[in-house]
Design a protein that fits this description.
Oligomer: homodimer
Largest interface: A-B, 38 and 42 residues
Radius of gyration of chain A: 17 Å
Number of strands of chain A: 8
CATH class of chain A: Alpha Beta
Strand content of chain A: 15-25%
Helix content of chain A: 25-40%
Strand order of the largest sheet of chain A: 1-7-8-4-3-5
Shape of chain A: globular
Chain lengths: ~160, ~160
DNA sequence: TCTCAATATATGGTATATCATGGGATTTTT
DNA sequence: AAAAATCCCATGATATACCATATATTGAGA
């Protein structure tokens, strides 16, 4: 897995009538040396779209493949949901992608989309929903400061 | 195993009176440099058709052959069933395949087929059945959030 | 610190290419 | 000879590529 690339910052862009949005240029440069597309899917737990490089999903596919769990049930469930939903979104020379109806609906996005960096991934939110969610998250963190455990290999 | 090919997304295509279906173009490009056919077989656990590249089945055969795994006996049985059922389905210049009666019946497909990406594999469902199955899976995931953790990365 | 020019990025609109699908012609199978 | 499978062409819908304009960001000079 390539290191030193992180989706960061929060950027607000317009969605036109055809569903086109400019992918923030910072995000584009992350992918550029590999390809000209990004992968998006409906978040399983939030009303937003999630995005990442195909590289990340490819790694997931590999790990599953090599775990000798070709027939495992849990793998089955999750791979169905993630790969079944994920789709490549190529961006043209002007840097736009065309989000599908399904994705836009899931995130309640119509005119405006907010890109929120999340490290190896990013999310796309409806502006109002993101404002609320961010407030909620900040509040939660203040209340019970969670530990960022490194031994357990969880960084989220 | 070749990198960077993933069956993704969910695509709905028609099955015409002759039994022809367009293999989604994204799926075709995955196979194109190798061949012009895809392998399909009846899913062992769901009322759907499964598809993959011949390459993947080849890898499966190899893995079983070289496995010292204690449970490989079970894997062996399952593999037998798959190889007994699997068949190559060539697609023509317009990208269509003709699924067999046996497969269509197993998945209860008549007019419409839904292609569901699954990483290195994909599935073909009856539309109603897939809708139900997807709902079920999403529900299950929401109830008891399983972790898809591999070497510190989270994919969900 | 401010202003203005230069550059990069975002957005709107239009032309072009691609894909799914229907139908007919040709070949193969039984 | 009949049935089935394969191939090939035509078409409408839709996504993609491209060009043009607007907006924002950056940097230099005062």
């Amino acid at each position: 897995m390539r290191k030193n690339f992180l989706f960061m910052d929060t950027i607000t862009n317009k969605v036109d009538t055809k569903g086109r949005v400019s992918l923030p240029s910072d995000y584009r440069t992350i992918v550029k040396d590999l390809s000209t597309e990004i992968v998006c899917y409906r978040s399983l737990f939030s009303p937003c779209i999630e995005g990442c490089t195909e590289e990340l999903l490819d790694k997931l596919a590999n790990d599953i493949e090599n775990s000798l769990d070709f027939f495992s049930q849990t793998q089955d469930t999750l791979t169905n949901l993630i790969f079944g939903d994920a789709k490549r979104f190529p961006f043209d020379s002007t840097g736009r992608i065309m989000l599908s109806e399904k994705l836009l609906k899931h995130a309640s996005i119509s005119n405006t989309a907010v890109f929120v960096g999340k490290g190896r991934k990013f999310q796309i939110w409806n502006p109002q929903n993101w404002a609320k969610e961010e407030a909620r998250l900040r509040n939660e963190v203040l209340k019970n400061r969670p530990s960022l455990k490194y031994e357990g290999e969880r960084y989220d």
